[in-house]
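Data availability (excerpt). The following record was deposited with the supplementary files.
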Amino acid sequence: MLTLTSIELVGIAAAFCTTFAFIPQMMMGLRTEILNSLSLSTYTLLAAGKVSWFSYGTLIGSLPICLSNGVSLAFVAIILGCKLSLRRA
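Predicted structure:
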């Protein structure tokens, strides 16, 4: 049986919030194709940070860190991809 401590529950809640916070921005960008107000440098640094956290989670063998940052990285990559493709259009 899986038992979680209150500290682990706080970590899971934090990971959930910070991971899925990108969904509204991603959905709005995909729907409206208006991303000119987003900072390219901010999202690029954010993606680099997510890669770093994912790598750290891999190195220490932490599945929650890997999952939350891997999913976040996918969302950030979609936003960056939209931003870059619309920039060229």
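Summary of structural features: DSSP finds four helices and no strands in the chain.
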